[in-house]
Design a protein that fits this description.
Length: 414
């Protein structure tokens, strides 16, 4: 079937997106109560949509606007809280599919990467909870895909695609500030590709004009997302307060916080040292749990893939393959540089997505005759691990309070 669809990426994307959406929506109402950071973002979304007053002021508004939209459309219930998160998860899967298709033009590689994202576990969990990370992943991956689409576009169609990328980057920064470095990376990519081959990439577009447009449109989009704040009944935003409010958010995000049981350092996230129990208590008459943990096959196999991409990229002088590895390196380096007093495993969400890009790119880097069905074996291993952890990813009924021990491979996971 894949051979018949390899030249029909839109059909493939539709099938993958439908499968992802069904998976994310299955038993979306469990747990039936607010879990983990939903206790912050759902009330903030309610307050925002009521235009009552500022709430959760350490973060921009986009994710809370979308959570509130879900509540407005589907009701103030577990489905409403999480409905737009499922769409964000599906957009993330499709964004990775588009990135790999645009980089390599091979259906098998694009499908593999999309399926790995579906199975990497953190995307699945963030697609079923009302938090910021799921929306961040969707906007960043789709912005990168739109940028690659513009880069390879025919002359005359580059600008609309480039502006689409700029808007998506602006929305990603409007979700979490950690997306801002990706705007800078995009600008560097434009300048580098125009310097390397002026006519092949972004044809008909001046590199400096493209960078200026990308920066200005993304900034304008970011500030536009604060529009609802100007209509609060209590303490509404004013134009004079808009810029100072950014400094206030910075102070909130960099303040010293007391120790937390689930805090962890950035270097520990790729090693799966400290996953997070989002939920573990009786719900609906049975014990349920949700553990934010990466798929070990993808997590550890992805590190090998990153190294393989960097090596193959240098050896072959392939910007696409090397770039897949560098994307993961850059995503982790951001957290090494950010002045946060506490770190948490869910900050690794974007890096976990980029691991899947690197894995697919690594399989592309080596001819099939040399890997001898290794990609199929890796896929089945990842699928097996996903279903092994499924009960504590999906809040399925468990045997009792001590049931979690079945999945605790290491003491630090408890």
């Amino acid at each position: 079937m894949l051979s018949r669809l390899r030249d029909r990426p839109w059909t493939l994307a539709l099938l993958i997106g439908a499968a992802a959406q069904l998976l994310f929506c299955y038993r979306l109402g469990a747990p039936s109560v607010l879990t983990f950071d939903e206790v912050h973002y759902v009330p903030a979304a309610r307050t925002l949509w009521a235009l009552a007053e500022p709430a959760n002021t350490e973060h921009p508004l986009v994710a809370k606007e979308l959570i509130g939209l879900g509540i407005h459309l589907f009701g103030d219930n577990p489905t409403g809280w999480r409905a737009l998160s499922t769409l964000a998860g599906t957009a993330t899967v499709l964004g990775v599919f588009a990135i790999l298709w645009l980089l390599f033009g091979r259906a098998r590689i694009a499908v593999l990467g999309a399926v790995f994202v579906l199975l990497n576990q953190t995307v699945y969990i963030q697609a079923r909870i009302a938090m910021l990370e799921g929306f961040l992943g969707a906007f960043v991956t789709c912005a990168i895909a739109a940028l690659l689409w513009a880069m390879r576009g025919p002359q005359g169609r580059v600008w609309p695609r480039l502006l689409l990328s700029a808007v998506l980057f602006g929305l990603s920064v409007g979700t979490k500030w950690v997306a801002a470095p990706y705007v800078a990376f995009a600008c560097l990519l434009i300048l580098w590709t125009k310097w390397r081959d002026r006519d092949r990439y972004f044809p008909g577009v001046n590199g400096f004009a493209a960078v200026l447009a990308l920066g200005l449109v993304s900034i304008a989009t970011y500030f536009a997302t604060f529009l609802p704040a100007f209509f609060y009944r209590l303490d509404p935003m004013t134009l004079g307060e808009l810029i100072p409010f950014q400094h206030y958010m910075y102070e909130r995000q960099t303040q010293l916080l007391p120790p937390h049981p689930y805090q962890s350092d950035w270097w520990s996230w790729p090693l799966l040292i400290r996953p997070i129990w989002y939920f573990y208590e009786p719900d609906g008459g049975v014990q349920r749990g949700v553990l934010l943990i990466g798929n070990p096959v993808i997590w550890f196999g992805g590190l090998v893939a990153v190294a393989a991409c960097l090596w193959a990229g240098l050896r072959r002088r392939s910007a696409a393959i090397g770039g897949a590895g560098l994307l993961w390196v850059a995503s982790l380096a951001i957290w090494a540089a950010i002045p946060k007093s506490l770190g948490f495993f869910y900050y690794y969400h974007l890096s976990g997505i980029f691991l899947c890009v690197a894995i697919a790119a690594a399989f592309h880097a080596f001819p099939q005759s040399r890997r001898r069905y290794l990609d199929d074996a890796f896929l089945f291993a990842a699928l097996f691990a996903f279903f092994h952890f499924w009960p504590i990813l999906s809040a399925a009924p468990l045997d009792g309070p001590g049931a979690f021990n079945r999945w605790m491979w290491f003491d630090s996971w408890r």
